[in-house]
Amino acid sequence: MRILYINDSLAVWGGLERILVEKMNYLAEKYGYDVYMITCDQGNHIIPYQVSPMVTIIDLDICFFREYNYSGFKRLFIKYKLRSQYRERLKEQLYSIKPNIIVCARLHLMGILNQVKGQIPLVVESHSLCRAYKFEVSGRVKTIIEKLYSYQVRKAQLLVALTYGDANDWMKITRNVVVIPNFVHLNNSGKYSDLKSKKALFVGRFSKQKDIGILFKIWEVVNQKHSDWQLHIYGGYGDDYEQLMYKYKKTSSCVIIHEPTPMIFDAYLNSSMLLLTSVYEPFGLVLPEAMSCGLPVISFNCPYGPSDIIKDGIDGFLVKERNVLEYANRVCQLIENSSLRTRMGQAAAVTSQRYRADLIMPIWKQLFEKL
User: Fold this and answer.
1) Which structural domain, as residue segments, surrounds residue 150?
2) Buried b (16+ CB within 10 A) or exposed e, 263-302
3) How many domains does the chain divide into?
4) What is the pTM of this model?
């Protein structure tokens, strides 16, 4: 079986990049598949995750972001030129690789991919919600994007959603939808957090989706009651970085920001809870990761990942949308009740096992062989 993944790059510390690398590694090493990844914007950027030598990465060196060096008609011309280059180079690689199945994780690349893939079955992975653009753009642009994506998705043989909520949204566009959650790299050290450290943890990019700004507001409330506790943030660069760093300087005594690290499980094991404040979350890899270390978790009940993962009041808390005071009260509840932390942490470790690779990847294998 020869599987080809299509993505723009593997250049950042992100959940999408990590799960794609781990999935490709698994397919190549465990099932013996010939696995390829074609990127267009990788350039000289280093891949932050370890790619198996059995996986072939090919970058077409398009660098679509170069169009933003220009304006007006010049930008339109450069964009047209780059898209033409991408179309031709992608077509050449498809002819050379001859994949049995193509998997695309980026909707904005599907237009050209559909033009050149021929009869090769296409699987779309919805790593961003069907409704994600509704959180990010408005007005006529939103309508145009919706129509373009809907048209391209209908041409795919199958769309794989990570949650049932997202699947229901996609089924308004195409009936060829299945749900396969991400598998998660879980804690296998045999150790669990003792939940005694006065540290809460947040892991995620500095982006509008993750809404770290509201996290600062929550922690200001928590800090008024529990000034001896600290919030530790492991966040990669994103579109809100500069603005959030300004807010961080105002609260730096109780909030500590770290660079992204491949040793994130050490941070989980030395914390007492994980916080997530996303506006929307296609899945939320950090939730089961932290839960596998015995951490209770708190998240806004946003579309759609957290509610699929967290059992409210059992292994964590789901908080009503954007309610800062309720969220802060839940944090304080875990701080003040060590037996509750322990009970939830133990339940969280059990919940996390639903996302083991050996349970999720056979579903992918069956799907690929059926196609």
Assistant:
1) 2-183+356-370
2) ebbebbbebbbbbbbbbbbbbbbbbbbbbbbbbbbbbbeb
3) 2
4) 0.91
